[in-house]
Design a protein that fits this description.
Helix content is about 45%, strand content about 15%. It contains twelve helices and twelve strands. The protein has a five-stranded mixed sheet with strand order 4-1-5-12-6, sandwiched between helices.
């Protein structure tokens, strides 16, 4: 009988990443996307294997006496031949273990709940920013002066009302025979048409889908928000050196705040969404973020990354067949198997769970608050008209009394 070497594999049981299932006949089956990928690699490797979970669920860190804890320590001491489960390649770890060909690249991103939608009383001014409104006002004033220069029939006050009426598609200034006057009028009408259509289209978009509160999109923005005290950020231990040793002042301050407040990830809470709340961000591997939250439209996964690192198998000095392992990983990676398992498990997780964020549900019907600003302007205008009406009456009475 052919003797096959036995390979001991150290793993971390992480929720939704790798799980160990033992059947009634004692057979070990690995679950979740990293567990399934490991199972494929071990079966292709062709050796007998034994799965050894790391009891503290720790990747391992270097102690002052030079020894390692966790999974790295198990491999370094010869207690395991292989190590797998989100193992990232770092320079420090290469001092105690070897690494295979990377099977994927990972990046540190953060996940947060999308900001709440803002329903402003004066939402009708949102289609244009302040600079655009100022430019429109200046153009309007200049056109009043130009129309007043080219004709003498109307006062500037009357020209003001006639030009203002164009914004609501009312009658404009009368057409005259002067060519320069016609060119001026045509230019003004073209300007008004573009402005009114642009404003109307954008306003409808804002009414149907209100704008959201300011959100953080990068780690630098996250750092500034945390420094202001408006946000909380939770990180896992491995990401802290990248913050604390960063040359960027904001990132370094973010790391110091995280350490001072002990905003560390509890691995037992992973996958429950405990840290992902409104104005509370959680840093994690991009693959984990896609797995847990990739199908949730109410959540935001940052495009900005804190660092990018290859992920690979760690193996000890006595491992039998690193060349064969690298060949297997290259074949599975070229076939896109790791990404396929990640997508499949992410969709299954989405179907099983019902993650409820703190964002409000979308309501497509307009409420009175959406148009409150318009009614306020109407009320102010009617009040001014009534005051003017009373002033004219009293002025008429006083003028008649003098005569």
């Amino acid at each position: 009988m052919e003797h096959r070497p036995k390979t001991t594999v150290a793993v971390l049981e992480l929720p939704h990443v790798l799980s160990i299932n033992i059947s009634e006949d004692g057979a070990v089956r690995l679950g979740d996307y990293e567990g399934q990928f490991l199972q494929l690699v071990l079966e292709a490797l062709g050796t007998e294997y034994e799965i050894i979970p790391e009891k503290n669920k720790a990747f391992g860190k270097l102690l002052p006496n030079g020894s390692w804890t966790g999974m790295m320590g198990m491999i370094g001491r010869g207690e395991a031949d292989l190590g797998f489960t989100h193992v990232t390649v770092t320079e420090q770890r290469t001092e105690v273990v070897n690494f295979s060909t990377p099977h994927t690249m990972t990046a540190c991103v953060f996940v947060t709940v999308l900001p709440q939608k803002i329903k402003s009383t004066f939402g009708f001014i949102h289609p244009f920013d302040l600079k655009t409104w100022i430019a429109i006002l200046l153009t309007f004033c200049i056109m009043i002066v130009l129309f007043g220069t080219f004709q003498n029939k109307y006062s500037l006050f009357k020209i003001f009302f006639r030009l203002f009426a164009n914004f609501s598609k009312q009658d404009s200034m009368p057409v005259e025979d002067s060519l320069k006057y016609k060119i001026l009028l045509l230019t003004w009408l073209l300007f008004v048409t573009v402005i009114t259509f642009s404003w109307s289209a954008t306003l409808l978009a804002f009414l149907v889908e209100p704008i959201r509160d300011t959100m953080v999109r990068t780690f630098r923005e996250l750092s500034k928000a945390v420094q202001k005290g408006t946000h909380k950020a939770t990180f896992y231990n491995m990401s802290l050196p990248f913050l604390l040793n960063s040359e960027d002042k904001d990132l370094k301050q973010l790391g110091e705040i995280v350490v001072r407040n002990k905003w560390f990830e509890d691995i037992s809470e992973r996958g429950k969404g405990s840290y992902v709340k409104y104005r509370a961000e959680q840093a994690m591997h991009r693959s984990t973020a896609k797995m847990l939250f990739g199908n949730h439209e109410e959540l935001f996964i940052s495009e900005d990354t804190l660092y990018v690192s290859p992920m690979a198998f760690a193996y000890g000095r006595s491992f039998c067949c690193p060349s064969k392992l690298n060949s297997i990983i290259l074949r599975w990676s070229a076939a896109g198997m790791y990404d396929k398992l990640l997508r499949d498990n992410s969709f299954k997780h989405f179907l099983k769970t019902s993650y409820k964020s703190e964002t409000e549900s979308t309501n497509f019907s307009l409420a009175i608050t959406d148009l409150l600003g318009v009614f306020i302007l109407l009320g102010v205008g009617l009040a001014l008209s009534f005051v003017t009406f009373l002033a004219e009456i009293f002025y008429g009475i006083a003028y008649s009394a003098r005569r």
